[in-house]
Amino acid sequence: MTAIPRALPAQDADVVIIEQSWHDPERFAAVFDRHYAGIHAYAARRLGGGLADDVAAETFLIAFDKRARYDVSHPDARPWLYGIASNLIARHRRAEVRQYRALARAGADDAAEDHAERVAGAVDAGARTARLAAALAEIADGDRDVLLLVAWAELTSEQAGNALGIPAGTARSRLHRARKKIQAALGEDA
Description:
Elements: H1 14-21, H2 28-47, H3 49-65, H4 78-91, H5 93-113, H6 120-138, H7 141-151, H8 157-164, H9 168-186
């Protein structure tokens, strides 16, 4: 007779793990394991690889230190963690804007220098990347934070607002404003 495979236990919600970590700090490693890659990728997209390691590591150090104050009404810790990461990225705002401006210049230069070697689609993609980077550099900091939390971290506008400590309506307004500026920069209809 063959054994019937048991169903795997459901993965604990972040809030359960965080509550357990209040008494067993090593449990917090599960939150780190679950979310580090996403936080690191988000920081890398915003600041580049050099600062992403520091921002991601510091995000989890702060989260670990503040885990006793975690709002247990939120089962998913992603908005909380992205909020911490966004606050840390805010400290590096100048580097982020410089990166977008450099990408905007590099995208335009690459398209011109390598024209003979690129197919039409790649040139168009490079030009769009340059325009997008230039537009991101010009968007207000708060608007850019909401837009990138929604676009890159895949949070809802409500979760982005929660992450940034702003009302959901404000987050929606900032997202709408940022999308309009990006669409205008890329020459797209609404």
